[in-house]
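Severity: low
Component: inverse-folding endpoint
Summary: output formatting inconsistent between runs
Steps to reproduce: submit the following structure tokens with default settings.
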């Protein structure tokens, strides 16, 4: 069904008109485009007065304003999280949740689960997402400069209870090279 706008005179579908009770067809006489243009023109002419009115209402109703902002922030937080994941990592929230579930619901390294209202970090190398990590494990990888040899030395250090002589690593590297040479042959 269609209707003619009282302002611009164009014939438009009914969905282009706001609903209005008390009218014959249940829609406003002006289309949404004309209605919004009229409101914008009015606001431009009455900007200072309208800003003062809103500020006065806010100061008179601080508890209502606080409740409104708190509810709105919950929605915005979810929207911003989704936008961040897509923009930064190319992941939707559903893909993040699936990856986290595949990891058992926790960090890919230590297994710790995020606390209430918290999320884990997306571990990536360039454009490739590798997993989801807690802040401690993510920072540890960064501190070890993403080097496997440093991670191995750190593991040896922890396993031995202290200092491990440097020549042990030279012997280990030599053994690894010999094993790889034998595999190729």
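Observed output (run 2 of 3):
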């Amino acid at each position: 069904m269609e209707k003619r706008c009282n302002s611009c005179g164009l014939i438009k579908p009914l969905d282009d008109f706001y609903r209005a009770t008390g009218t014959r067809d249940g829609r406003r006489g002006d289309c949404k485009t004309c209605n919004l243009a009229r409101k914008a023109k009015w606001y431009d002419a009455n900007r200072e007065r309208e800003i003062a009115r809103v500020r006065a209402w806010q100061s008179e109703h601080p508890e209502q304003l606080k409740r409104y902002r708190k509810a709105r922030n919950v929605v915005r937080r979810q929207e911003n999280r989704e936008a961040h994941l897509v923009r930064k990592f190319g992941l939707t929230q559903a893909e993040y949740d699936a990856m986290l579930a595949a990891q058992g619901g926790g960090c890919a390294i230590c297994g710790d689960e995020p606390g209430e209202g918290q999320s884990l970090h997306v571990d990536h190398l360039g454009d490739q997402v590798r997993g989801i990590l807690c802040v401690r494990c993510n920072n540890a990888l960064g501190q070890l400069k993403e080097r496997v040899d440093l991670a191995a030395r750190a593991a040896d250090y922890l396993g031995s209870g202290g200092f491990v002589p440097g020549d042990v690593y030279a012997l280990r590297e030599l053994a690894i090279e010999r094993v790889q040479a034998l595999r190729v042959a």
